[in-house]
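quick q for whoever's on today - can somebody do inverse folding on this one?? i tried earlier but teh output was garbage lol. tokens:
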């Protein structure tokens, strides 16, 4: 059944897990009310009698709702479906490029795999905790964010997440366009006027045309909505595993095995290694930090918490395996060609004949589309729809995402490993960290997992999520406090500040950790000052 089934009435939850909450002064006489467990089971659902004031998001047709709670009939995503989703997300050129960048920065293959594995264990914890309320209530990220930031303030983190997703959509589309470029006739690829970068644009006309062609090809999948995305991820996962294994086998045979590669001494030792390790760790967490925030957009379709946890538990395994493949293949290029080739598209263009090239391009295109649509279209499209449910559909939100992806000029972000890791990944992780820190602190520490689903769709001033004019000022202040220490280091990195204190450089190199912890701590302190602790009234 398509995910876009109409929901004309609101869904609400029975039982002690469904509470309306307000900040109230601490009272020793007030009895404590039941709380949900850490990973609550999905409650039974029933139709609510009263309409909501804040309309749910419209889907591809005006009569359907995109932001309404997912009904039980549509919660069909199994653990394998979620695992397939992560295989499609992991097996892609950016993941390979990230692994190759670690070698390019001086890490050995084993150092790189260990760094990636540790980072993804941190990400996995955030994924499971963020997805739990989505599975319980069937809610997407823009709606869940209203409980923390307010019914209007939720647009702020949603738009920040959306803009980062637009940047990633542009990056993935540019990578796909480069794959298309390899298929062009040699005469066309050697015609110099088409290969000269356009002043101001920074990209060659032929490369830009290939980028637009691949960009447009993805829209046909996007217009089919979530059901089309789910089918694409499910059937492409085995193909991507086979193609990755084939590339790894080629590197093994051509380099005479991996023994020499794995036994190579690391170029970074002692203090030099730790100087690269922490930024690399933060970059790897930042790599999935966007998905860790909007994972509710997918987890809302899971059958149960067990499916959600088991399906996502594959992330560290899949990422570790693919990172090893990327690092092994990248390291083998030094043995085979005499120098490191960290760009998989450049590598594939230098091996095999026409048949190999066509197969490689098919693999790159499939990997790029599965990653791009799932990770970089769903969240931004939902965010734009949430801002104006009557004006935007999911398809229109996806189109806006794609257009902004062009405006981000991805060819500049991929100009070097330095700009990709230290500027792009570290830079936006300083925005994702505070959002995640505030949301988790609010749901598990301040509200103790209690949630009033009806109130999330109401703009009534008496709603517990209306706060101050629809904005939770405490959440906004905490998020700003998390970002502030990172700004000087970022400005220094992009060259706008000639010098800054070493403490700011360290904070920037650990941007996600610093911003996550500061924002979460500040939010808890502000909530304590405003009311002692959060109390709940049975709705």
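ok took a stab at it. sequence:
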């Amino acid at each position: 059944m398509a995910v876009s089934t109409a929901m004309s009435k609101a869904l609400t939850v029975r039982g002690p897990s469904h509470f309306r909450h307000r900040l109230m002064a601490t009272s020793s006489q007030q009895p404590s009310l039941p709380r949900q467990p850490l990973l609550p089971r999905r409650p039974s659902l029933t139709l609510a009698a009263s309409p909501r004031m804040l309309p749910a998001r419209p889907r591809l047709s005006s009569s359907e709702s995109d932001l309404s709670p997912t009904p039980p009939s549509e919660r069909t995503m199994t653990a394998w479906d979620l695992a397939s989703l992560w295989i499609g997300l992991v097996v892609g050129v950016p993941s390979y490029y990230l692994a190759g960048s670690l070698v390019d920065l001086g890490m050995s293959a084993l150092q790189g795999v260990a760094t990636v594995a540790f980072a993804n264990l941190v990400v996995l914890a955030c994924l499971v905790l963020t997805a739990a309320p989505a599975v319980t209530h069937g809610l997407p990220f823009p709606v869940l964010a209203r409980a923390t930031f307010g019914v209007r303030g939720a647009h702020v983190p949603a738009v920040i997440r959306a803009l980062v997703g637009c940047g990633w959509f542009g990056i993935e589309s540019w990578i796909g366009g480069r794959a298309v470029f390899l298929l062009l006739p040699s005469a066309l690829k050697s015609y110099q006027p088409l290969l000269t970068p356009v002043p101001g644009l920074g990209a060659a006309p032929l490369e830009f045309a290939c980028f637009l062609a691949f960009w447009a090809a993805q829209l046909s999948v996007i217009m089919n909505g979530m059901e089309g995305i789910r089918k694409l991820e499910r059937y492409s996962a085995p193909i991507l595993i086979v193609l990755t294994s084939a590339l790894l086998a080629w590197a093994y045979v051509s380099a005479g095995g991996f023994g020499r590669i794995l036994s190579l001494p690391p170029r970074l030792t002692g203090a030099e290694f730790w100087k690269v390790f922490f930024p690399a760790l933060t970059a790897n967490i930042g790599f999935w930090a966007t998905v860790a925030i909007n994972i509710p957009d997918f987890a809302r379709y899971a059958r149960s918490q067990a499916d959600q946890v088991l399906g996502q538990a594959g992330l560290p395994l899949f990422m570790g395996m693919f990172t090893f493949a990327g690092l092994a293949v990248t390291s083998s290029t030094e043995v085979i060609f005499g120098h490191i080739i960290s760009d998989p598209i450049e590598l594939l263009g230098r091996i095999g004949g026409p048949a190999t090239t066509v197969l490689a391009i098919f693999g790159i295109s499939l990997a790029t589309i599965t990653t791009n649509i799932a990770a970089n279209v769903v969240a931004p499209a939902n965010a734009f729809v949430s801002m104006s449910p009557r004006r935007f559909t999911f398809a229109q939100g996806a189109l806006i995402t794609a257009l902004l992806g062009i405006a981000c000029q991805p060819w500049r972000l991929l100009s070097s490993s330095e700009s990709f890791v230290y500027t792009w990944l570290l830079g936006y992780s300083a925005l994702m960290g505070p959002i995640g820190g505030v949301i988790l602190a609010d749901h598990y520490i301040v509200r103790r997992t209690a949630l009033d689903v009806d109130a999330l769709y109401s703009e009534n001033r008496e709603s517990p999520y209306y706060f101050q004019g629809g904005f939770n000022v405490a959440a906004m202040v905490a998020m700003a406090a998390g970002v502030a220490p990172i700004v000087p280091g970022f400005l220094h990195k992009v060259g706008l500040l000639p010098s800054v204190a070493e403490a700011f450089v360290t904070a920037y190199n650990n941007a996600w950790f610093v911003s996550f912890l500061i924002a979460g701590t500040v939010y808890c302190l502000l909530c304590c000052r405003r009311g002692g602790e959060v109390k709940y009234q049975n709705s």
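fwiw Confidence is low (pLDDT under 50) at residues 1-64, 532-539. also Residues 26 and 533 are 6 Å apart (CA to CA). so keep that in mind when u check it
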